[in-house]
Amino acid sequence: MTLMFASPAYAQSTGAASAQGGGIAALFVQALPLILIFGIFYILMIRPQQKRMKEQKLAIEATKKGDEVITGGGHIGKVISVNGDEVEVEFAPGHRHRVVKSMLAEVRPKGAKPAND
């Protein structure tokens, strides 16, 4: 019976010794799925969002007279004048407001028409 108890203990110590020998490789194998998930997440989510934000920022900076804009509050109007960081927007005939460019959510260039018209 003593032989029976000795063999499992010997097998456990041999397995532990081999696991310590490949510590860096084992760590890399465990970290690889996390690295792959982050890489896929970056390619599918983060990069396209950064590209869209860059395009939106350039469009807002290039706002000119006659463009149709949508403010952060959802108001749609036509740009009457541009003065540095501010634009004057006409929301209705005779109803004008000065709006800071950073509060514009979208810029529609002149001549852009809705798809349903």
TrEMBL record:
One matching Pfam family: YajC
Membrane-spanning intervals of the chain: 21-44
Signal peptide: none
Cellular compartment(s): Cell membrane
Family to which the UniProt record says this protein belongs: Belongs to the YajC family.
Function text: The SecYEG-SecDF-YajC-YidC holo-translocon (HTL) protein secretase/insertase is a supercomplex required for protein secretion, insertion of proteins into membranes, and assembly of membrane protein complexes. While the SecYEG complex is essential for assembly of a number of proteins and complexes, the SecDF-YajC-YidC subcomplex facilitates these functions.
Descriptive protein name: Sec translocon accessory complex subunit YajC
Organism: Sphingomonas vulcanisoli
